Amino acid sequence: MAITDYDTPRRTVGDIDEDSLEELQARRAAAQSPLVDVDETEAIEGFELPGADLSNEELTMSVVPILADEFRCSRCFLVHHRSQRTIDRNNRDICTECA
Question: What's the pTM?
Fold first, then answer.
């Protein structure tokens, strides 16, 4: 990604037309530097492969079943309070956000 300094003064159309071919080629070569400054260990730390083995992991949250005054939306599958319940054309429970 090219770095742009927005604080530098802008050039006029006349200045751009006067640039020499060598100057333009030097600027292009500088912008397309093949060197990338990336810390490989930092990039790998946050990367997790799909299908990683999670068999040693334990559930750290307690799961509470749906209460009597709650319902599960048939579109977004989230649990909402019954005050947000509406019924769609197919007679299914949906929340007011999905309606």
Answer: 0.41
> Residue 37 corresponds to which amino acid?
D
The residues near 93 (Cβ < 8 Å, ≥ 6 apart) are: 71, 72, 73, 74, 85, 86, 87
Sequence-ordered list of residues with C-beta below 8 angstroms from that of 71, at least 6 positions apart, any chain = 79, 80, 82, 85, 93
Closest by alpha carbon to 84, among 66, 98, 63? 98
pLDDT digits (tens, 9 = 90+) for 65-92: 999 999 999 999 999 999 999 999 999 9
